[in-house]
Write a structure and sequence with these properties.
- There is one protein chain.
- With 383 residues, the protein is α+β, with helices and mostly antiparallel strands.
- It has two domains: 134 residues, no CATH class; 194 residues, no CATH class.
- The protein has seven helices and 15 strands.
- It has a six-stranded antiparallel sheet. Strands 4-7-6-5 form a four-stranded mixed sheet.
- The radius of gyration is 46 Å and the shape is elongated.
- The two termini are 84 Å apart.
Length: 383
């Protein structure tokens, strides 16, 4: 049997030998020995009444089997539809009509059809799946978040980000500071060793003067200059030029000479005594101090504070050593790396923060920015 569009209204009784045409108006025709079902329009009331029915009954022959029939509706768009069937028999059905029919979707040259089968696997009838959708419409509901839920979630994420991001950014910047400081310290130490072997003398033989002679600072800077990867030479320049290109804090040329390296680090030189006569402790690296070398990790960038982005070293007769070591009596870690005192504030004849350099190099952190109970022989981190 085939299903075709157009036709009149079915009145009563079975249709072409089947009792399964009651949901739509049809005309049963016979032509050349072949039976056709002609469709006119769907009966919406009948369809609504049978929305929950997923089983079709056919008319039995003498053997009790349902008469196999095929249906086709050319006007309907082919598409796939996954459905399930109820089990059990309905009231009023007898014999083969109570068999469970299973629906199976298959593809036939791009045309999707649904095959209804008995529980024993034999085929009952085949219909276009789009017709099945009209006969038994399925309601689907897609889960989604409401606007209020989305806004609340975004608000929570924003609060968490505001609480955690500043700390994460600070930690990352501290790692950059440690890496850069170690790098420049290595370069300065190696340069001093080369100067010693190439010139045959330590800093006492370089012709340095005291801290109030501009020429003395320039001589010291020019000694290191050939061995550094310099991008901006501020030696001998006026304060305005130095503040723009090298350092804003130590830009007074009569007291300092500075150069800026290719990686953005500024190195500042200052001579104290040409004969290196200053002693700041009993350790070898604290004896025979000639002057100081300051390193600004980010050049002209902020905050320009000792212990934050500016770090200081002693220039001695024996080499270059960081300030703030355990036995440093002039710039001790406890006194001049103290978060309870304003960074850069005067403490004696030096500044708070100048005693932090050795800690950053050897402990590899800046935990002193967050707590004041750290100690060389005790607590190394705030928690």
């Amino acid at each position: 049997m085939k299903f075709r569009g157009g036709g009149a209204t079915r009145k009563t009784g079975s249709c072409c030998g089947l009792d399964l045409c009651h949901n739509f108006k049809i005309t049963c025709l016979e032509a050349s020995g072949e039976k056709f079902l002609r469709h006119s329009e769907l009966d919406s009331e009948s369809i609504n009444a049978d929305n929950n029915r997923l089983r079709l009954g056919g008319r039995s022959d003498e053997s009790g089997k349902i008469i196999p029939s095929s249906f086709r509706h050319p006007e309907l768009v082919s598409e796939s539809l996954n459905t399930s069937t109820d089990s059990g028999s309905e009231a009023g059905m007898t014999g083969a009509e109570s068999n469970i029919l299973h629906r199976k979707v298959r593809s036939d040259e791009g045309r999707k059809r649904t095959t209804f089968r008995h529980s024993d696997g034999s085929q009952s009838l085949s219909m276009p799946v789009n017709l099945i959708r009209h006969l038994w419409p399925q309601k689907s509901r897609k889960a989604a978040f409401t606007m209020a839920e989305v806004l609340i979630t975004l608000g929570i994420i924003g609060i968490i980000a505001a609480m955690t991001l500043p700390a994460l950014i600070q930690r990352k910047q501290e790692k950059v500071t440690v890496t850069r400081l170690k790098k420049v310290y290595s370069i300065l130490s190696q340069t001093y060793d080369r100067l010693f072997y190439e010139n045959g003398s330590d800093a006492t033989g370089w012709g340095l003067g005291d801290m109030y002679e501009q020429e003395s600072h320039e001589i010291l800077a020019n000694k290191f200059l050939p061995y550094l990867n310099v991008i901006q030479n501020c030696v001998g320049k006026d304060s305005t030029y130095v503040a723009k290109h090298c350092t804003k804090i130590y830009n007074y040329s009569p007291s300092y000479s500075s150069v800026r390296l290719i990686d953005g680090v500024t190195v500042i030189f200052r001579s104290w005594y040409g004969d290196c006569r200053m002693n700041l402790g009993n350790e070898p690296h604290l004896k025979n101090v000639c002057g100081e070398i300051l390193v600004d990790i980010n050049g002209t960038g902020r905050p320009d504070l000792p212990g934050n982005d500016i770090f200081t070293f002693y220039l001695t007769k024996n080499g270059i050593y960081p300030m703030g070591t355990e036995f440093d009596t002039r710039n001790s870690f406890k006194e001049k790396c103290n978060k309870d005192i304003e960074w850069g504030a005067s403490v004696g004849d030096m500044q708070n923060g100048m005693g932090c350099t050795a800690w950053v190099l050897y402990k590899e952190n800046q935990e002193y920015l967050r707590c004041s109970d750290l100690d060389w022989n005790g607590k190394n981190k705030c928690r």
